Amino acid sequence: MTAPASSPLPTPRGFPEAELRARTAAAQARMAEAGLEALLLTTEPALRYFTGFLTRFWGSPTRPWFLVIPASGDPVAVIPAIGAHLMGQSWISDVRSWSSPEPGDTGLRLLSDCLVEKAPEGRVGLPSGPETHLRLPLSDWARLRALLPRHHFTDDAEILADLRLLKSPAEVAKIETACAIATRAFDRVPEIAGPGVALDQVFRRFQMLCLEEGADWVPYLAGGAGPGGYGDVISPATPAPLQKGDVLMLDTGLCHDGYFCDFDRNFSVGAPSPETVRAHARLIGAARAGFDLARPGATFADLFGAMNRVLTPGGTTPGRLGHGLGMELTEGPSIVPWEGRDLQPGMVLTLEPLLTLPSGQVMVHEENILITPTGARWLSRPSGPEIALLPVPEAAKAAP
Amino acid sequence: MTAPASSPLPTPRGFPEAELRARTAAAQARMAEAGLEALLLTTEPALRYFTGFLTRFWGSPTRPWFLVIPASGDPVAVIPAIGAHLMGQSWISDVRSWSSPEPGDTGLRLLSDCLVEKAPEGRVGLPSGPETHLRLPLSDWARLRALLPRHHFTDDAEILADLRLLKSPAEVAKIETACAIATRAFDRVPEIAGPGVALDQVFRRFQMLCLEEGADWVPYLAGGAGPGGYGDVISPATPAPLQKGDVLMLDTGLCHDGYFCDFDRNFSVGAPSPETVRAHARLIGAARAGFDLARPGATFADLFGAMNRVLTPGGTTPGRLGHGLGMELTEGPSIVPWEGRDLQPGMVLTLEPLLTLPSGQVMVHEENILITPTGARWLSRPSGPEIALLPVPEAAKAAP
C-alpha cells in the first residue's frame, strides 16, 4: 500500500468559539419568539451543531446524550462520563455527567434537575418535525415526563432545522473539502474497477481511495452495476464481477471534519451503448438545468421543475431530485414539486436526477452545489455529458 | 496502492430463509406469552434481524421504515419506495411502499391500515427499553396514535433484545470473520504508524488496512495517543504526530456482512516505560481473568468481578468492562456489577478492561469472545501481555 497523500487540511478543524456562540444566540432569539425556555437536544448533529462535539461513538446505542439550550446563557451538556473529557475540550463549561451505564437512572435525574433550573415554567421544545427523532428509549421518555409533571414538552418550532439550513462559510469550506476529496477519488476509479473485478472489491477499493485522498471516514457508499443500468441506488455490493456493457454507479457520502459530500458517478464498462450515452447525457442535462435555475428567490419546486422537464417531459419523476447536505448525508428540504420554500444563499444542496429506463432499471446522477447571492456554485466538479469509461483490455475483447 | 487480497468470503452472505423464519417464529411465541398482536419495528437492526435487509442508506434521516410482525404469518414491510427493490429480494413477500418523501402522509396511513389489519384488538408492542429508540419524528408518532385511537402501544416485553442476545452459528461466523479481518489489520499497524506520523493519518491508513484485509466498511474507529496513555477512548484523531514514549490505542468496529467486531490494540512508540509495561500486562491479565471465568451459569456481575479484581483490587472500576456485540457496535447487556443475568451459550461479548493511570490518563484493552456450552472461545486473537512495539528508527533515536 502506498502512503496516503500528506494530510489535507485546507481548513482549520472545528469552528471558532464565536461561531458556536453565534449559533446559540440565533437559536435563543428564535426561542424568545416561540416562547420556549429551553431546547432539549438528544441527537448527534443537534449536539454537534452547538458544541462542536465530534465523535464516532454515537454508533453505540447504550447511553443517552443531552444538550439543554437555555433562553439565555450558555448551553448545558448532560452527558455520560465517558464523553466528559472530550466535551471538556469544547467551549461548553457547564458539563454535568454521570457514570454510565448505571442502574435505574441513566442520567434522567440530572437532566430533569437541569430542566427545572433552566425552564422553571416548563416550556421545553424538542426537534419533532421531519427528519428528526428522539434518541432516547420510549420508557425513559415516559420516565422523564413523570419526573417533570408540570413541564410541557412541545416541538422546537423548527428552530434547529431552520438554523442548519443555511451554512456558514466555515461549514461550506468543510463540505467543499469533502467534495474535492471525493472528486479525486472518482477520478481514480479506473485504477480499481474494470471487467472481471467483483463489485464488493470495487466498493472496498473505492473506500480506500477516498481515505487515501484524505477522507476522515466513509460513512456512506452505495451503488450498483448491471447491463445498461441498475436496480436501485441503496443496495450493498454483491461479489458479482463487472462485465462488459455494465453501467457501474458509485454514490459516496464521505466525511471531512464531520461534514459530508454526497454525490455519485457513473462508469461504462467497455464502450457504452447508444442508450447509455443518451441516458447519461440526459441526466447531466437535467443537473445543468437545475444548476442554471438555482438562485435565491427560486423555489425548491422550481428546481424540481427545471430538472423534471429534462427527465420526464409532460410528467412527474417519482421521488425527489435532491436534498440538503451538511452535517448529515441527507438533510432537508427535499427537492420535490410541493416544496414552496425559496432557495437562499448559504444553502448546500444535492441535485440528483433519476431516469427510469425502458428495462425498468434506473440511472441516477448527483452533484453538490452552494446557493450564492447571485446563483449557484458547484461544490463537486461537475461531470460532462459523456459517461466515464472503464476500458476493456484488448485481451478480454478478443475472448469469446 | 496494491490490490486488496482476494475477496474473503468464508461464510455465505446473508442468512438462509429458514433462519429468518425461525427468528420470526421465536418472536411470535414470545408475543403470544406477552399478549401482543403485533410488534412495530422502526430501526435498522430491528428490521434487518427479521428480514435480512442490509443497506447503509439508514444514514439518511429523511424517511421512516416500518416492519410489522403479526401474531402469526409473515412480517409486513411498510417502507419507502426507494427500498422496495432491495426488500423485494428478501424473503418478505408483503412489501407495502409509498413514494417518499410525500407531502403530509409519510407512510403513516399505510402503516395504520396495516396495524388495523394485523392488530385488530390494538395490542402493539414497540422496543422501548435500554439501548432502543423510536426512529420516527415525535410529530409523526403523535399522528400515528391519533390515526389509531383505540390501539394501545406498549413496550415489546424485551422480546427483540432477548432474541438478539443469543447469536446463531451463522451470526457467530460473521462476527468471527470481522474479528479475523481486524486481527490482520492490527498485525499490520507497524506498516502505517510510527514516530512522526500524524494521528489522523494513522486513522486513515488503519481504515485502509481494514478494507484491504476484507472489511465491507469501517463504521467505527476511535483511539488516542499520548505519553504513557490517552485522555479518553472516543475522540477523533488530531493531526498531532506520534512521539517516542506515546502509547497509541486504536479501537475499531468494522463490518462483515452487517456484523461487527469491536476490539482495540495498544502500541508503544519506541520502548515502553516500565509503567506502560506493567499497565498493559495488567489489562491483559484482567481480560484473561474474565475469559477464564466466562461460562454458562456465571453472571455478568461475576464477569465484572473477575476483571475488576485485577484492575481495582478492593474497589470498583467506574463504567462497564464490556458489552454485547453483533449487529451493532455495542449491544446489551453491559458487564457491570449489578447485572445479575447469566451468561448463556451463543452470547458474544467484549471484554474491555480499563485502567486509570496515576497521570489521570487511561489505558484500555478489548477482546471479543463467544460463550460456549462449556466456557468461552476467543473470537479476536488475544493479545499477549507484552505491548506491541512501533520501533523508533535508529536515525530518530540518535537525534536530540
TrEMBL record, chains A, B:
Keywords of this entry: Dipeptidase, Hydrolase, Protease
Domain spans labelled Peptidase M24: 174-372
EC number(s) on file: 3.4.13.-
Superkingdom to which the source organism belongs: Bacteria
Keyword Zinc-finger attached: no
Hydrolase listed as a keyword: yes
Residues covered by the Creatinase N-terminal domain: 23-165
Gene Ontology MF term list: aminopeptidase activity; dipeptidase activity; metalloexopeptidase activity
EC class name: hydrolase
Protein name in UniProt: Putative dipeptidase PepE
Source organism of the structure: Pseudooceanicola algae
Underlying gene: pepE
